[in-house]
Task: structure prediction
Amino acid sequence: MAIETQPERAEPTGRGPEVTGGGERPWWLRMGAHTGLIGAVAGYFFGHWLGNVLGGDFARSALSDQNNVAIVLGYAFAVIGWLAGLGVFNDLFGLMLGKPLPEEPRLLGKEDRGLAKYFRYTLDHKVVGIQYLYGMTAYFLTGGLFAMAIRSELLSPTYHLIGPEQYLMVVGEHGTMMMMMMSSVILGPFGQYFGPLLIGSKRVAFPRLEALGFWLTPAAYVILLSAVLFGGFPTGWTGYEPLATQAGEGMDAYFFAFGLMGISMILAGFNMIVTVINYRAPGMRWSRLPMFVWSMFTVSFLQVLSVPVLVGACFMGIADRTFQTAFFTNQLGGSSFLYENLFWFFGHPEVYILALPGFGVISEIISVFCRKPLFGYKVSVAGMVGVGTLSFFVWQHHLFDSGINPDMRPLFMLTTELISIPTGFIFLVAMGTFWKAKIRFTIPMLFALAFYFNFLLGGISGVFLSDVPADTTEHGSFFVMAHFHYTIMGGLIFAFMAGIYYWLPKMTGIKLNETLGKIHFWTMFIFFNTTFLPLFALGMLGMPRRVFEYARNLETLNDWVSISAFCLGGSILIFLINFVMSLTFWREREVGNPWRARSLEWQLSTPPPPENFKRVPVVLATPYEYGVRNALPVADLNPPPGVIGTAYAPVGGRVED
Amino acid sequence: MSSAEIQAPAGRHAAEREPQHTWWLVAVWLVLSLAACLVIWFVWYPHLPPGDMTTSARHQQFDIAVLAVSAAPVILGVWLYFGYVLVAFRAKPGDDSDGAPIFGNTKVSATWIIGTSVIVLWLFVFGTIELIGPAGAGAGEGASPIWKLSGNQTAAWTPGANDMLQVQVIGQQWTWSYRYPQFGGMESTVLDLPVNTPITFHVTSLDVIHSFWPYLLGVKADANPLVDNVAYTTARQTGSFIVRCNELCGIWHGAMTSNGNVMSQTAFKVWATAVQLRERANGTLAALPPYSLTYDPTVIPQLGKDLVKVVGVTGAPGYYYGPGNPVTP
Amino acid sequence: MSVTARAAALIVAFLCVAGLGAFVAVYYIGSASQLPTVQYTASGGQVNVALQEDPGNNSTTSPDWVTYYTQDPTTKQWLHTTLFSVPAHTKVNVTIYGYDGCTPLRNNFWGQVQGTLGNTVTVQQFDKNNHRLGPSTTTSLINSWASCSVAHTFAIPEIGLYVPVASPNANNSVNNLCGTYPCTPTSGGAYSLETFSFMSPGQTGSYRWQCLIPCGGGFINGNGGPMQTLGWMGGFMNVVSA
Result:
């Protein structure tokens, strides 16, 4: 059934002053990452000097030879310098000085060509998505290198490759890099890139906030890594007080970087919520929203509501370390429990911020490669919303043995076990979707299947942990490590890989090499399981977390895990080789819709036009109408003029034809 | 724009085979689940961690076995189902058609939701019972424990009288020490305990958060500064065990271990009295602070603030807060 | 971009990343391996270990941190390390020069001597001119709360060795602590000389040792800084086969 179209081009008429797009000036004269770097360095030295002036004569600075005020102020001014150098504040200052905002060139169909736009404060959400992709891959690989160092040290319970405080530094860097920096590993690359495309919007609601959210991440990354130069931080990624107040200079890097990432997450979440509510194309009802968008929407609420608590906790931690407040010092009336509760009130929604986008990506992928509608759309949405809501009510399960009020424990045992019900909906949806399907075992599908396998084990082990008596042995041991590696790495990272293999052709027009991809999948899946499955046993046999020495009879098991981990690192290396070589040299073209998917982003050109849609589309059906006879296409990309009235948010303040 | 989908002719045969396959799947699942549960219960259960040295450890063994028995059918069911569909509904090479347009099935969804809810609620009830029964299941219950062991609270402990033994576990960076208030408040670096005696652990810390984890005793309680965290257990077998620190507390966290022994009640009484006498003789007992459920390390009654005023003593009193504030010794 | 341009960019990026990784690895592995291990060998079935603890140190980064020094048995030089090795199952005679002033123990239990032969230590005080001050005393308890008399401790928890290290006599050490590091008996500071012996364990491996006095000045609870850095107030005793 063809839809009559009148291919009229939406010519911009009567708009504001013509925008030059800035294309005449060479890249080194425009503001970008290089000017940001200069600003950061200048800011750091200024802040450090200011901190020495302010705090250099504290008695404790003289005794300890460490001035935390200087370091924190150095980081603060470095970040301000970095952002100023990037040009983040230009529009703000321009408005304050009375200059009108220029029209965004890409929304007028003008494309910024070349690679330089990826190193600039670009407002195109697709550029931000690609920036996130490279950034997140870099953060992931760095965290992975630290993991290799951990497993090298754990090869022997008695011979020590690195010193004990270096080991704690490595453990903390690995954990924080993964949990902190990777919280946007799917939301960043795929959420920012495809979110507006999937809802039929030409833009996000707050492009400046979105780009700012990205540019804070390299700053947080560098600050977190700079802790290594200060001897690291000894608390692991949880940053428990009062050890955190006692720690050396590297601890400031942890709190500051976490605060920065927190701000980045809040901005990204806020932007996503407003975009999804207000910028859906006409006809994109809530019941037609793709599952990936639902997951992003739910996660954005989690971010906006839980991350401010973390930023507060980080601020209090910095305050305790710099101007000597006593929020977390029991002897002076503070409480170490306060930190634990603040951290985990954020920490538990955080792990769902990590897990839910994985559910969303996988739901999209199984529908396409089963060529079947998603089974139980409402059930799936209920699952995501249920998980998101309940995630705020379970945080004390991290604190069962910590001396909290004992009558809270059955309550949190109940809520934690209840949360496995909506999590189970994801499996129900998957199992229903596979029934009477036509399954194609493409690489994204393989990763999706691995996701379900891993998440099943991870989720069931979570039930073991939620049972308070069983938790007495399992808490804080390698059992917990295995549980969260199965859910987060086995879940989220496998979903990330699935997303890359699935969506890279749309983002870049290049597909990743099939053979290397299959090798990557099988090695990653097998070695992932051989690495983390024995950790359940190690934890049950009494090995605590974050230890550099352990019982001698556990050495064989640890050696097996370490060797497997090195092989797992090798498989990630295969992925990296595939990624780099495919994008740089092999460049196997893949334009069009190779997966024959129905969703809106695949109906566009590759790469999508700068303004996403030449005309705002009218959405006609869900993207899950596979197998339905006479199904409508998901959207009409060239609606007749006059169909679209004032039912959408206009670009640049004007109504389009 | 999608064209009309044509069902492959094999689909009709497949539809007829499906009810048979479904019953086969259910049968296989039942058999495998039964086998797995039997193996878990009779073969694995006696060897499950954390062993059966104490009542709390035994209850945890039981818990984990029941959880495993509840989880095994779920895991097996999901695996069997996925195994079947991945084989039965694979797209044949060259087949580009779509699958069946099933958008949902209320009965299936309802069954699943009700089934998982029942399992979850059962686990909750079971977990709560197992928490209350063995007096908190060895987990630290904070300063006001609700579920306690029964035993006589006495000032001096005598064997064979069902007296509750009180042990204070002091965690500090980076070693454990134990005080026995019923033996004059004597302190020891080795945790010796009597068998078949209700034991109360009062776990506290002198600096940062540690966690007291004698693995074989099935006890875990965080040690927080200025907080008394109470845990209970009763040892049922003699033997030695190792105490590890379970909460990252700084550089030597991984090496913060200590030894302990469960011995007969008379042997324990002999040991504890001997330590008490030795420490009284060499003056250690008098040098210790009076026994208390928590210790504020900024207050040393014997010294008061004199240390700060000793001129020229440039030891490092650990000034963090200025001299007006409590000095951390 | 042309293929050569892409290849060049890729190689440059790879070199940058590899270089950064190498720098980090060398920097922080290097900083740990810079610590030498002092090897003590047995003579006549015994081995003599000499340590000292100072109120400051000769480093540039943290000159105010207290620290231990270990004496090299052949060169008699004081090395800024806390790693040493002794043979297994041998009598170890330890001499500790205590140059640092007193700080009370957080847990006074560690004033009790445990794990040495006889469960005692012998202490001889010296004044700033390196003259003996009073007779040497052999004691099983140094009460840091009754009088300011303990500077640090030397504890090897795995073998149950806990030894308080006496500080210079408090009255005598007023303004009399050594000021140039590493201290020597003739560098103008009062000190205490403490000796004790213990049997090294039969099983080889590394045994950590630490100080139990919270002497990290400027760190809350006093347990930061030098207390949490290898080479300062804690280290490893490596037991090697005899």
Notes: The first helix of chain A runs from residue 33 to 55. The CA atoms of residues 111 and 610 of chain A lie 6 Å apart. The longest strand of chain A covers residues 510-511. The two ends of chain A are 25 Å apart (CA to CA).
